[in-house]
Amino acid sequence: MSRDTLYTSQSAAIGSFEFNDAVASVFPDMLRRSIPGYAQTIEAINGLARRAVQPGSTCYDLGCSLGAATLAMRHGITVPDCRIVAVDNAPAMIEHCRNIVEADNAATPVEVVEADLRETPIDNASMVVLNYTLQFIPAAERNELIGRIARGMRDNGVLVLSEKVTHEDPEFDALLIDLHHDFKRQNAYSELEIARKRAAIENVLIPDTVATHLERLQNAGFRRAGVWLRWFSFVSFVAVR
Boundaries of each Methyltransferase domain copy (predicted)? Predict the structure, then answer.
C-alpha cells in the first residue's frame, strides 16, 4: 500500500479531485487516514451480506473503486447461485479492481464493469452497496438513482448507503468538520495537505443531510431505513426493500 502524499506538492492544489491513476495507487491509505470508521463499515458490509444476500440473486457494488465492499460481500455470501457486479466509471480504479478481484479466491463470481452507475441496470438484487458514491452524483439525479435501485431489488433486499453528510446547524457542522480535521492530523496529514484536499474536493463532493437521505430512501420505496454506523460527518445507512 503506497502512502498518500498527493497533496504535498504545489501542483496538487490545481484542479478538482479525480479518481485517476495517482489516486488509485494510494487509495487504501487515503481512505484509512481520511475516513473515520471506513474499515468498520467494510466489516459491517461483510456481516450484512452473510445475513441478507438471497440465493440466486445479484449483488451490486456501485462506485466500487478498488473493490473493498465487493470483496466484503464476496466473503460474506453463504448462499448459492449468486453473483456480484462491481461498477465504476474511472478506468484507473477498474484496472486495479480487476487485479485485486482476480487475486482473490472466494467462490462467488464477480463481474467488474467500467460504466456509469447511473446507466447500470439493476435487476434481481438482494444487496446493493453505494459506499461513499452518491455524494459524487449531481444532486438533481440522486432521487432517480435511488428509486431505480429500489425498483430493481427483491423484497427484503438491502441497500448500504455510506456518505459524508452535512448538519442542519452550521455551528455543529463546523464542529464536526474540525473534529474530522483533527482525525486527519492524528493520521499525519499536514495542514497544507488538509487545506489542499478540501479545496480540490469542495465542488466535487456535495453532501446531503441525514434527513434528506432518509426521506429519499422512504420516497424510493424502502420499507425501513436508518443509520447503523456514524463517526463525525461520516454516516452509513441501511435500507430494507
Answer: 61-157
Q: How far apart are CA 241 and CA 222, in angstroms?
A: 4
Binding site per annotation, positions:
38, 63-65, 88-89, 116-117, 131, 198
pLDDT at 9: 64
Return binding residues for S-adenosyl-L-methionine.
38, 63-65, 88-89, 116-117, 131, 198
Name the nearest CA neighbour of 228 among 22, 23, 48. Answer: 48
pTM to 2 decimals?
0.92
pLDDT band at 10 (very low <50, low <70, confident <90, very high): low
Cell digits of residue 18: 479525480
